Amino acid sequence: MVSRTVQTYDPNQITVGNYPRYGTAVTVGGGAALAAGAVLGRITATGVYVLSTDSAADGSQTPSAILGEAVDASGGDVQGLAYFSGVFDQALLTYGGAYTAATVSTAFRAAQAPIFLTAVGSE
Fold this sequence. Notes:
Distance between the termini: 32 Å
Structural class: mainly beta
Low-confidence stretches: none
Number of strands: 8
Mean pLDDT: 92
Radius of gyration: 15 Å
């Protein structure tokens, strides 16, 4: 008897494949609503995670996590799920400033972070 595993494709799912994912609750700030898939950086002085932008100079310019759920921090800091490892669909991520999938992927590699970006459907 053959045993098969069936996986359902969800075009809105930011995670891809079976690579181990590690996520934990973090404090998200920035005064804005962020969608799942936002590339986050950590403000060194406060430990709060915000959308990582290349123009920041507070530590958050270094991409360090992927937001796992939509959050609304427009009224103040909130708790949200952040992934610190996994494989993610680069087309579904939100990049801040001039960041692109290529520059964020390079930043994760330089930091030796176990976060990988891929183009779903490409070889």
